[in-house]
Amino acid sequence: MSSQEAYGYAVARIRAMEHRLLDSGVLQRMIDAEDFSSILKILGETSYSSELSSQTTESDFDKTLEADLHNIYEEIYAFVPDKSLVDIMRLQYDFHNVKVLLKSMFNVRAGGKKRWDLLTSLGSYPLDDMITNVESEEYRLLPFGLSTLLPKCITIWEQSKDVLEVERLIDKRMFEVMLEKAKELDMPGIISWVKARTDGENIRTLLRLKRFNFDASKALPFLHEGGDIDINMLVSLITEPFETWGRALEFSDFGKMIGSIDVSCGFSDLILSLEKALEDFYLEKIGAGRYSSSDPANIPAYLWAKEMEIKNIRVIMVSKRNKGDKDKLRGLMRHGYV
Questions:
Q1: Residues 194, 197, 203, 204: is their CA dihedral positive or negative?
Q2: How does DSSP assign 149-203, residue by residue?
Q3: 199 near 229, Cβ under 8 Å?
Q4: What is the mean pLDDT of each run of 10 residues along the chain (338 residues)?
Q5: Where exactly are the structural domains of the chain?
């Protein structure tokens, strides 16, 4: 089977799976629901019904969502011609697990307890293997260049207790691996999307640093190489008002998107607005492949749409728990795929 034929079949499978995604009407009903039980009833009428059948309490709900997403990843992994297309999407969870295991190790050494409850099964590398390799200090068995990175992170913590620097190094490696895998696939659309993810994360990081009046001269190490926007140019924005960032970046795909964000709110809401705008932008960018019946980009596009659906459900649940404003909640909803 040729590559085009193989992806023609994979995309056809994805098209069939699209019908499981929630439409905007379902999300609106969840937003208007009065309580947790009402939300469960609404979801029980959707593709989540099978996962919800064994769930009885609100505390189980996160596990239910994770299980549903895990099943989607495994289902697509079984028929996609290039497994790395799925692995690229799961890398964020692999590196999340690395952070959790390291922080747990640091916490135990400081007299605290392990926090393995924060680990996730959504990574591309088997979770049990990762736990065993880290616990036994068999770092050489770990993938993604972690065999050399983890000892370095541990040394940094032992010398300075600087967890922020440890997280920075782990995030840096994650974006490096994402780009490495994208280039190995040799698919221009995927490479472009990974670069956009890197640029977007750099912009988000800059706004967070700006919030705390971070010294511009020390901000550069927190930005990741590999995007299309020069990080030296980006770091200069930290001293400028956010409302000017769109004009400064008008040469890129991000200029118009940033320029559309309401800057009249406080920093906390501004960061939330930027994160939503970025995630919608990522879906729009990778979703361009939907016009082709054999474009490999349909695989990560569907997976990103599913990720955003799960995020929308979680945002609704948190808002309900905190008795949040419904109009504000509607503004936080990520764009749908269908």
A1: negative
A2: HHHHHHHHHHHH--HHHHHHHHHHHHHHHHHHHHHHHT-HHHHHHHHHHHHHHHH
A3: yes
A4: 77 95 94 89 90 68 91 96 96 98 94 91 96 94 96 96 95 97 95 97 96 90 96 95 96 94 89 95 92 93 96 92 88 81
A5: 88-185
